[in-house]
Amino acid sequence: MKKLSTNEIRQMWLDFFKEKHHHFLAPVSLIPVDDASLLWINSGVATLKPYFDGRKTPPAPRLTNSQKAIRTNDIENVGVTARHQTMFEMLGNFSIGEYFKTEAIHFAWELLTSSKWFDIPAEKLYITVSNEDDEAYKIWTEEIGIAKDHIFSLGRDTNFWDVGQGPCGPNTEMFYDRGEKWDPENIGPRLIADDIENDRYIEVWNVVFSQFNNDGHNNYTELPRKNIDTGAGLERIASIFQDTPTNFETDIFFPTIKKVETICNPKFKYSIENYSNPTKEQTRINTAFKVIADHVRATSFAIADGVFPGNKDRGYIIRRLIRRSSIYGREIGITTSFLYKLVDEVIKAMREFYPYLSDKKTIIVDTIKNEEEKFLKTLSKGYDLLEKIINDEKEVSAKNALLLFESFGFPIEQTLEISAERGVNVDLAGFEALLEETKEATRNARKDLKAWDKQNELFTKLHVESEFTGWEETSRENAKVVFLFTDDKELASLTDTEGFIILDKTPFYAEKGGQAADTGIIIGQNFKANVLDVQQGPNKQHIHRVKLTGTVNNGDVVEAKVDEDKRTLTMKNHSGTHMVHYALRDVLGDSVMQAGSYNDENGLRMDFTFNRQLTEEELQKTQDEVIKRINEAHDREVYFCSMDDAVNKYHALAFFTEKYDDIVRVVKFGDFSSELCGGTHVDNTKDIEDFIITGVESKGSGLYRVKCLTSNETVGEYLREQFNKFIEEADKVMTKYNDAKSIMVDQNIDTIYQNIKELEISKQNLEIIKNLVEDLKLAYKEFDKKASDLITAAKLAKFKDLKPTLNKDGINEIKLTTTGLNIKDLKNLADDLRNKFENLIVILASEGEDESFLVVAVSESIQNEHKAIDIFKNLPLNAKGGGNANLAQGKYSK
To answer: Which fold has domain 462-562?
Structure first.
């Protein structure tokens, strides 16, 4: 059999399906876009869901890809099993409503067995099909000629793909037989038939025949458009062609493992022979090497795609992978940061298909190194905590084991081992139960989010043509109605209702690319329709949701008028988004990646990835850079071109997981901003008029959201609102100050307030007024303390002649009941009296209409015999409060 590198396998797969007229889809980011049901892209089909359920029309009905994916539901198995990985590549071929079972099976067999392609001996392949799928069984046996002892009909647990709602169906799987040496008990094909975990028969390909709709309640109906969805694990196939015991000895991981050998204690080596003659100790060592090689690859790709270590969601996963690697490094004698030194090996192995990794090397290395070094400090605290738990509690509870696991990165194996050395029990069962609860909580947080939409038959057949003309115009007089529908039903007319209209030509922009939809009106001879929203249909038709008065008929000629005020403000904000994107990269560096945006008539926001919080100085520089480019008055340029020209000729930025057409649109301002974009924009940067950053917030690990405004009117209104807000705060402070002015005057407060009132409204003065108001609050706080002290002193002056009497124990005692004093006053009076007299017990009460206060204080010299809290509790009052030997305080009632 051929010996193929991973790159050769991937390329051969893609070349085969290109030859079969499949459109190649480039791999996309690990971060899902517009899919809250997924934390990561977790399969080759995950990015294609809109094509399968009919929301979008694919660039071609036949598709092929090699898509990176991450699955993290059972990280603990990585390195333990032969083929379990955090990140993997899934080779795929897909048909959206074109070919089905016959072609899919024939394609699979040809690629696997043809001497031109993989050239795997036919006798080495075994097949499973669903026991509900006689058609697939017949194709395999009668057309392909699979021997009956090489094919198995199995149940839904293994051969039916279903996610609860949306497209689903039976599947067929292909297995490669690695031979009897991987089947020591000589069980043979029953390993497949009984679905027994084994190392002999390796699943290489899974073809899903997506032919049913699940309504979410396990009611199945035939899909109006049937699809093919396949997946073949690249790492698994590589292990077959490279004849390695596991995926980890392939050219993907093994160079990293060999690099680790140069870093770790020389006595530790990775042993391939351990798979034929295993020992417990060497298995443990091998596991450490595999975990490290897996985790550094997954982490490198995630960081390159804009995920940074953090405390939740994706960031928590990356932090955990780095921490696990560090812990396993200790298993082989590495006690310093080291993972960052392996990034080069990951890039070398993967850069042929993922060239962008080289550009991201610096940010990957720096991020991993910083996280490792922080963790090493945390880890030492974890060891200290475990030591304390063992010494104090003589056991490790489930709760503490989970604390060590989640907060300090301790794998449970580490806790078990250290505890065993100390003869201390760990509640392993309780830990596993708690861990499952945390996993279930994470799953529940997303389970109500639809993973798939049900396939919509109307959308799968919606082929009417509709042209967007809104780049050049905001109204059209002779547009024609070409499609009407409501409740997923095509109609000939709509009357006095809410429904959907498609026009042959429309100036209305459909919401996409972060730009809000246009609104406006559509007018015909017998109706007027307010356009409430516009969304893009599966064939890029702009679908207008309207509230209709009168009757519209299919074929009517109408006038379509966009709300120009809204469009103009939206254009300013969309162009402003491009400006701030450029400026952030200019100020912070090219590691900044846009991760989504939204702009409408009210403002703009842009999400971006970066590995730390921005400083005020960096924000100011970003704002200044945008304003500079606005004032330079750069014309907008637009180019329709190939993707290659967009990137190489016009230097366009493209970060999203959108699937681009053969011809893309580039929007360019000067020589500094060039992006792939289908939105509407100003003609010249000067049309943006003005710009201000109104805030930046963290949206999770390494993800930030900047909020901004453009246009003279909007920025001016915002500044007026902000100034009014700050002046309101200042006025409130001054009201309190003026109320206390009779006690004392603070010239500083008066001066600061005067400066606030005289400040002109401007961007430059926004930070100044903010700081002045803070200064005013601080000045008043100091003033209030001094004034309060004066008020208290005035209140207490009348008690200056109080003198103690001797109680029955011969101790000095002062008892006072008065009115108008609060707790603070009583405590100050008690302190004054104790400073004047020795061996003193002070009992002070102040009666009020609503509340009465009580303080008991005792000189330090007599606190052994007379404790304030004891005296407080034994007073013949209904007192509630607390304290200690020195002082007790509270409220009382008679």
So the answer is: Elongation Factor Tu (Ef-tu); domain 3 (2.40.30)
In whole angstroms, what is the distance from residue 790 CA to residue 651 CA?
70
Query: CATH 3.30.980.10: does it fit domain 567-710?
Result: yes
Question: Residue 243: its pLDDT value, please?
Answer: 94
CATH class of the structural domain 6-241: alpha beta
Could you tell me whether strands 840-847 and 812-819 are parallel, antiparallel, or unpaired per DSSP bridges? parallel
The residues, ordered by sequence, that sit 6+ positions from 572 with a Cβ below 8 Å of its Cβ are 682, 687, 688, 689, 710, 711
Model pTM score: 0.75
Q: How far is CA 312 from CA 145, 292, 320, in A?
A: 52, 22, 10
Ordered alpha helix ranges (H), 63-189? 101-113, 134-138, 156-159
Please, which residues bridge with residue 734 across strands?
none
| DSSP-derived pairing of the beta strands 853-858 and 840-847 | antiparallel
Roughly what angle, to the nearest 10 degrees, separates helices 361-393 and 313-331? 70
pLDDT digits (tens, 9 = 90+) for 578-600: 999 999 999 999 888 888 899 99
pLDDT < 50 stretches in the chain: 445-451, 656-657
Per residue in 530-558, is it b (16+ CB within 10 Å) or e — as a string? ebebbebbbebbbbbbbebeeebbbebeb
Cα-flanking dihedrals φ and ψ of residue 165, to 5°?
-150, 135
Cα–Cα distance, 155 to 170 (Å, whole number): 10
pLDDT of residue 893: 84
The ranges assigned to domains in the chain are 6-241, 253-393, 462-562, 567-710, 722-796, 800-893
